[in-house]
Amino acid sequence: ISKIGVLTSGGDAPGMNAAIRGVTRYAIEKGLAVEGIIRGYEGLLRHETITLDRRTVGGIIHRGGTILRTARCLEFMEKDVQKEAADYLRSLEIDALVVIGGDGSMRGAQALSHCGIPTMVIPGTIDNDMMGTQYTIGFDTTVNTVLESINKIRDTASSHERVAVIEVMGRNAGFIALYAGMASGAEAVLVPEHEVNLPRLCEHLAESHRIGKLSSIVVVAEGAAKGTDVVDYIKEHTYLEPNLTVLGYVQRGGAPSALDATMAGLYAQKAIDSLLAGTYNCVIGLIGRRIAATPYSEAPHFHFPISDNMYQLVHMLGR
Ligand code: ATP
């Protein structure tokens, strides 16, 4: 191969820029030309590209968001649109496409590979919920952002003897809620993977209050329950005073943590090395202590859900 394309797709995640930089500079180091596609799959339909060199990706390793911008492109679900995109990539003489994004972006990459374009996915999503990897770029930064917010909210919660309910991102997976809950010493976490039992939550909170706890933290993943419903339930069924913080987009932004910027570079290297070795249509990921390239078809065998043990432990330690 002599030329690759790179795009970012789906929700932005801290460390995407570090991945773009890593892909570009490592590819150039190996003698490849690099074309950046603007706005994810949408850019393939609108024909928006930019040639990347060492300098265009300078000064971005520490920046949140993505310089290539990103989009959710619903049209791309259609077969003829995918074919059109593949033809466009061929017209640019792009031999392989590196996609930085989440689960949905991986399905898009898979669709392009069915149209004859070799693709490679670098996991970039704050949710940490992708098959084929135990770690997605952006997750660590987000957990740290949430942790910082919880620590601030806790100050107020304990001064006013309140229950702080904090809603975080995670529609299908509870990684952010679980890790932020664990690290902040939350009393409870609600995640989509476990049944939400509000009566038991209330008992737990009332008991904590009775034994002298000044405040309680409950971290709710958006996919488990609505923060407002949790607050209303607590208000109705206990004498406690709950308040709600929905963290929203602060969770997506900011400079990547050391871990995210580092993983971005390592994943980028693996992606390019694999392509150069003739391996493609894979998702790059951390499996155990190894960075692997797993074919899309085998990725479902490498599914790493949240740990049951950790879920139990948060509640045990939060009493
Ligand atoms: P995040 O985890 O941050 O939400 P994501 O990559 O999962 O990221 P999605 O919005 O699910 O985000 O997907 C990004 C884009 O990938 C979609 O807008 C669409 O263009 C493409 N895509 C998703 N699913 C498919 C599919 N089944 N076939 C083709 N393309 C898809």
List keywords for this structure.
Phosphofructokinase_dom; seven-stranded mixed β-sheet; single chain; alpha/beta; binds adenosine-5'-triphosphate; nucleotide-binding; ATP_PFK; identical protein binding; four-stranded parallel β-sheet; 319 residues; kinase; 10 helices
Short overview:
The protein is built from ten helices and eleven strands. The chain has 319 residues and is an alpha/beta fold. It starts with a strand and ends with a helix.
Largest sheet: 7 strands, mixed
Q: Globular, elongated, flat, extended or rod-shaped: what is the shape?
A: elongated
Query: Count of helical segments?
Result: 10
Extended strand count: 11
The distinct bound ligands, ions and cofactors come out as: adenosine-5'-triphosphate
Q: Strands across the major sheet, in which order?
A: 3-2-1-4-5-10-11
Query: Taking Cα atoms only, what radius of gyration do you get, to the nearest Å?
Result: 21 Å
Pick out the low-confidence regions.
Answer: none
Strand fraction equals: 15-25%
Structural class by sheet pairing and helices: alpha/beta
The average pLDDT is: 96
Note the gap between the termini: 57 Å
Give, in order, the helices and strands: EHEHEHEHEHEHEHEHEHEEH
In helices, the fraction of residues equals 40-55%
Subunit structure: Homotetramer.
Binding site for substrate: 125-127, 162, 169-171, 222, 249-252
Function: Catalyzes the phosphorylation of D-fructose 6-phosphate to fructose 1,6-bisphosphate by ATP, the first committing step of glycolysis.
Family: Belongs to the phosphofructokinase type A (PFKA) family. ATP-dependent PFK group I subfamily. Prokaryotic clade 'B1' sub-subfamily.
